């Protein structure tokens, strides 16, 4: 499964970068707006929201912490870490069941290019810069999305040593959950960037939000939709080979929700060009750059 640099930071040593919110400015130059910066799922995060909504930050941070306790790979007590350690998780959180269900559907759609069970490959390459063919084969034998059994009351991995990473989909899911919290509080013009970017409405100035998919890249307009970018160079492992892969230098996906944009950008980075459009459309993406 492909992981951008910002996703990689939650798994192994490396530098992360959150989305660049082009066109957003400090409060002094944008009356009524404030910028919050923090960390979500081990990566830099930020939001642009009305000044009179800053009292919602404790609720936002509590929701991020609650979801990190489910999806994080760097918290030893998270639901995901416990699943990986034991190979089974009884009475799993509903959010974990939902995300794994979404992941399974995309794995089927992409014939396994998107595969949440690639964690053994990350662990192998973190231990050895140039793993042996035997070690690669052993790690690849543990990678198979079909070996994850997901029921409302139980999640199980088919073989000892299998492990899951959700860093190609969970950031989008968390972004959507925070956006939903803000919408329930009545906010309609907010930009949320928790690894992936979700806009509620447009900019209060009556124009689209401007979101650059990477530092130095041209900004893209965003209104009531989501963007996710994958830059696979050096941070993509092809489940079919167990080695770094990727078919593009950068791919950006727009979708109605951040979880879809996140997962689809992750998947498309490993697919050949002639398959990307069909997969993106079937998965619910609206534009691909």
UniProtKB/TrEMBL annotation:
In terms of PROSITE patterns, this protein maps to: TAT (PS51318)
State the top-level EC class: transferase
The EC designation for this entry is 2.7.1.180
Q: Which reaction does it catalyse?
A: L-threonyl-[protein] + FAD = FMN-L-threonyl-[protein] + AMP + H(+)
Cross-referenced SUPFAM superfamilies? ApbE-like (SSF143631)
| Pfam families hit by this protein | ApbE
A Gene Ontology MF term for this entry? transferase activity
Respond yes or no to whether keyword Lipoprotein is given for this record: yes
- Does the keyword field hold S-adenosyl-L-methionine? no
Supply the alphabetized keyword list. FAD, Flavoprotein, Lipoprotein, Magnesium, Metal-binding, Transferase
Cofactor(s) the protein needs = Mg(2+)
Q: What is this protein called?
A: FAD:protein FMN transferase
State the organism of origin.
Answer: Caenispirillum bisanense
